[in-house]
Design a protein that fits this description.
Elements lengths: L11 E5 L5 H12 L15 E2 L5 H9 L3 E8 L2 E11 L2 E9 L8 H17 L3 E7 L3 H9 L3 E8 L9 E2 L5 E8 L11
Parallel strand pairs: 5-6
Antiparallel strand pairs: 1-3, 2-8, 3-4, 4-5, 6-9, 7-9
Length: about 190
């Protein structure tokens, strides 16, 4: 008999993804970023990228990768969000962040990123969280800046020609590294 406490109605339940979740996770990520369904939310990339954002093989690789966690977020038994955390020594990498378009704009993203930061800090001892964002996504970058992330100006090229990442609709796409310090620098000695 399963004696684990069940979340109350409307509460979020976080858990690590399992292989059985792959198809639902692909559907969630695609709905948040690509195609007409993504236009219901504000995180859409439909105007800058067509084609797929991820595929079952890519999601399965994240689930199986050592030092990686793909966290699922459910509300009332329904998958509403996910994010990837990857342990990289002194820092963690945050990626594959998707919130169902129907759930966007209500503060869910803030709760999820705070939980991801807590896991990286408390379970892995990470001192920083890193992520990459397409540099032309100014609204999204501004959202992360309000959560304490800073632009580094460090750019990496977009993988043009690799349709696993989508089909670019413009020729100026790059990824910018954003970083957040996960260590409370205001606590001072003996107050931390």
């Amino acid at each position: 008999m399963d004696t684990a406490p069940r979340p109350r109605t409307g509460e979020l339940a976080f858990r690590d993804a399992e292989p059985a979740d792959v198809d639902a996770l692909v559907t969630l990520v695609e709905s948040a970023y690509r195609g007409d369904s993504s236009r219901a939310g504000w995180t859409t990339e439909a105007d800058i990228l067509q084609g797929q954002r991820t595929d079952p093989q890519g999601v399965a690789e994240v689930i199986d990768a050592p030092g990686s966690r793909l966290m699922t977020v459910e509300r009332d038994g329904e998958l509403v969000a996910c994010c990837q955390l990857e342990h990289r020594g002194g820092h963690a990498y945050f990626g594959m962040f998707a919130v169902s378009p129907a759930q966007q704009g209500a503060g869910l993203g803030k709760v999820i990123i705070a939980e991801a930061e807590r896991v990286a800090r408390e379970e892995w001892g990470a001192r920083e969280m890193h992520m990459t964002v397409i540099s032309v996504r100014e609204d999204l970058i501004a959202w992360y800046e309000r959560r304490g992330y800073r632009r580094t100006g460090e750019m990496t090229p977009f993988p043009y020609g690799d349709e696993r990442f989508g089909i670019p609709q413009r020729d100026d796409l790059r990824f910018e590294l954003l970083v957040k310090d996960l260590v409370d620098t205001t606590a001072g000695p003996g107050r931390g």
